[in-house]
Write a structure and sequence with these properties.
Layout: H1 3-10, H2 25-31, E1 43-46, H3 54-60, E2 64-69, H4 76-96, H5 109-129, E3 134-136, E4 149-155, H6 167-180, E5 181-188, H7 201-210, E6 213-219, E7 230-236
Helix pairs in contact: 3-5, 4-5
Length: about 240
């Protein structure tokens, strides 16, 4: 899909249909079981990145990270306002359903909210200063060149919305990640919003294997949504 075609698609996106909330750099390291040594010297993509601050904080540590998301068709001011509204709504819902989550990582709702606010502010401020690090991109067709990145991280999108995104959509999106990545892909979590494992996971892994990628399901130290305690690590076979 060309950039012109993406622009036409983008006009159809209603900002109110997305939730602009993100995770911090520290949360990413935990979710994906990452050591900073694994980031050194690599070209990294966070997709979809949303309001996450992995790119902002990681860039500040000297790592080469780019963020991509469908929301980036909007400017920082619009997304900052949307993010703040979403944080208020999310806090209200979280207080109503507190028992549905594991609080070992965050401890309290207040700490959870603080990290969400930090992620949003880091994201917005960094995008204002370095807009070239934030690319408008929409699955399942990403406007990125073949094998552009050594490591691609993808959190809280694929597999999670199985009730509204079809299996063909997931297949096409996974193939795009394989196309744009040279070495390694990590995807978290492996469950949907009802905490059920994605039903077509085995078929997705077989698809990756057919393209020359080895798959490992690995544990993560990050705990919040029940059942979201593993991620998939895909490694390109040489």
């Amino acid at each position: 899909m060309s950039r012109d075609e993406l622009s036409k698609v983008s006009k159809k996106l209603d900002l109110e249909l997305i939730v602009f909330i993100g995770r911090t750099y520290r949360e990413y390291l935990a979710m994906f079981d990452l050591q900073e040594s694994e980031l050194q010297g690599r070209v990294i993509l966070d997709c979809p990145a949303g309001a996450c601050s992995f790119t902002a904080e990681g860039s500040g540590r000297g790592f080469n990270i780019t963020a991509a998301d469908i929301a980036y068709q909007y400017g920082p001011d619009e997304l900052e306002a949307k993010g703040k509204r979403d944080l208020l709504h999310a806090e209200e819902r979280l207080r109503q359903s507190r028992g549905q989550y594991n609080w070992d990582y965050y401890g309290t709702i207040e700490r959870h909210n603080q990290m969400r606010e930090e992620a949003l502010q880091f994201n917005i401020e960094h995008r204002r200063r370095y807009p070239d690090r934030y690319i408008f991109a929409a699955f399942p067709a990403l406007p990125l060149a073949d094998q552009s990145f050594d490591l691609t991280l993808s959190a809280h999108f694929l597999f999670m919305y199985a009730d509204r995104l079809s299996e063909p959509f997931h297949e096409e999106s996974l193939l795009e990640l394989l196309r744009i990545t040279r070495e390694e892909i990590r995807i978290f979590p492996l469950i949907d919003l009802s905490s059920q494992r994605y039903k077509a996971m085995d078929r997705m892994l077989m698809l990756a294997a057919s393209r020359g990628w080895a798959a490992e399901e690995k544990n993560t130290s990050y705990r919040f949504q029940h059942g979201a305690d593993t991620y998939i690590k895909l490694t390109k076979q040489k």
